[in-house]
Description:
Helices cover 39% and strands 17% of the residues. It has helices at 16-23, 38-48, 90-105, 119-124, 132-139, 168-171, 174-190, 217-231, 242-245, 248-251, 262-273, 308-328, 332-338; strands spanning 4-8, 31-36, 53-55, 68-73, 111-114, 146-151, 154-158, 198-202, 235-240, 256-259, 278-282, 288-290. Strands 3-4-2-1-5-12-11-6-7-10-8-9 form a 12-stranded mixed β-sheet, sandwiched between helices. It starts with a strand and ends with a helix.
Amino acid sequence: MTLRLAVTPGEPAGIGPDLLIQLIQEGCPHELVAIADPQMLQDRARQLGLELSLRPIEGSPRPLAPAELAIEPCPLAVIAQPGQANRHNASATIQSLDKAIAGCLDKTYSALITGPINKAVINDAGIPFSGHTEYLAEHSNTKRVVMMLATEGLRVALATTHLPLRDVPAAITSDLLETCLRILQSELINKFAIAQPRILVCGLNPHAGENGHLGREEIEIITPLLKKLNAEGYNLIGPLPADSLFTPKHLNNTDAVLAMYHDQGLPVLKYQGFGKAVNITLGLPFIRTSVDHGTALELAGSGKASTGSLAYAIDCAAALANSHKAHNDKPDNDKRYHER
């Protein structure tokens, strides 16, 4: 089914616009709608030496012809120069997200794909901004979301995200982990069409605490919670030592891993799939995927940036949207069983 998908290219001076223009040169089976400045996209296409035809959103979604892109205009304050981020354009970057959120909530768009942004530039412009994930949650009135990165054969969700390491132990509470695992379980069922997810859970400490000799979080927090949820029908395995969890013995037939902190799980995933991985925000009232890399200002306008992660993010968003629709079309009794 052809879907209408919103794409925010992110930092206008970065590689986000380049990747989108490069990617649509061969067309697309879905209608990608860039929420961006039309002139910026045309200027970047000329700098890249590529064709670009922009068309308005009209009627039902229809596939993109080669070098074609649908557009929802979001003008910049000043002309974007590749490689030179300008804080005067920060408000337009935020406005593009606002338009995307509104379009996803009113069902104009079936999903949102976000390009890389420069958080420092946005904050330098006087706009408090800690990241896409937090902004999308706040502006869609979502109390709690979970960050998950995925590549072929591996999905890693995070209990905590961008915290200093010294703050992580205090953040690992039973309430936090229960919320994360319930969101992860629900999304694997409802959007990934996995009827009975098998989830591995990392311990916090080396060797998962070594029976309390290297920390007691596993004994006092993690293990009791896993027992509680498993009694409800979950299939949670852990807490497992992170240094041995990411091996074929454990990962075979596993649907996702919950890591306790950012650098516990993501180095393994990025080693396996950097450039072909996707960031997925779980728990939002709409589907959101993102590239797994930054703005790469030094590559903007050069044509040398790889489209692999953006292509994977688009494919993943479309697959999730179709899977979610198929799940919601099931009889009510079936949905109640899966969402228990």
